[in-house]
Amino acid sequence: MALTPSGAGTSGTGSPSDPSPSPAPAPPRRATRGLLPLLLVGNAAMYALYTGVPGVLMALQIEEIDPAGKVTAFGLVSGVSAVFATVFNPVAGALSDRSGRRNPWILAGGLLALPVMLLLGSVDTLLLVAIAWCLGQAVMNVYQAALTSVVPDRVPVAARGRASAAVGLGLPVGTTAGALVGAAFSDDYRTGYLVFGAVVAAAGVLFTACAREERLPARRPVPVREQVAAFGSALRAHDFRWAFIGRALLVLGYFAVAAFQLYVLQDRTVLPAGLSAEEAVAILLPAGSAAMALSTVAGGWLSDRTGRRKLFVGASAALTAAALLIPAVSASWTAMLLFSVVNGLGFGCYMAVDTALVTMVLPRAEDAARDMGVLNIANAGPQIVAPFAASLIVTATGGYTALFLVAAGLSVLGALAVRPIRTVS
Description:
Growth Hormone, Chain: A
């Protein structure tokens, strides 16, 4: 059944155990004026922290604590903390659904990022780093779950591509800022942590001050057992399930490589004389982010014009797979630059259009935040597996070539996963 322009851009279902659609809800009100720039800022701040903290500052912090075992230690800390991301995202989404508000959760998550980053910068053992980053994942996923739900709540289906492009642009803008800030504070990571916390806190205040919202209809109290069971109900919907699988596969391949980029540059890449690995990160991410920004805007706009979401999602996932083959066959600096640009083109388009596609296959309009939180398990869940799997591959093979090849294979599977989706062309 074609999805209707409801507040979540979905058709509803009668119950968590019944995936058949029910009559469509009423069309949403017009999106808040200035909402798209605020979505860009809010997401850019989030991705800046997600890039600069684990990708640069925490990697350097762990290397300082355990230089010989940095790959295994980083994989362990990243994997354990990602469990908190997986748990807190759908839980926070369900709570914001229940409260009928998004802004208070965005504000709370943003403000709490500052003290958590202060804590993370003050610890000096692997155990305490893991505990502090677990708290960081929890706080950031409260923020992310509510922010992600703004698009299905307030944007009509016909404008989802443009709205998703605004959200998607937060990725290249945020990763570029995160890389630059991370590199700038590579010799003083404690201050760097505070900068990232302050940026997210400011973004939370700005969004909630400028993007006013109307309270959603009150929800009836739901027993805890029913709430837990409802988290899995969305996956019984055919199209949502395949969208979930495709996202999980691509993100698994992406983070298996992205999480170890600093170490790849340190241990494998032949860098030009005088260029440090931290400086290389500050070059690669802006180059990839510029390509990502271009493909995000183009992909979102073209998918709105053509209505062909699946075509763009599948093609961009395949392009990401092709990008991963470049550093697999060459350890040169040029290969890494080319990889960054091609990967940016593929991943940017994928995230923009796939986000629009997902909002059109949500099973229940009234459970938009909860079901987007379930989908975000496809973002956070692979981050649990990726560090462990990547460290095992690197350790077993003695290098990073096999890691690139496995990641490319996962991206191919992610491209194929959109084919069974029925209600979106």
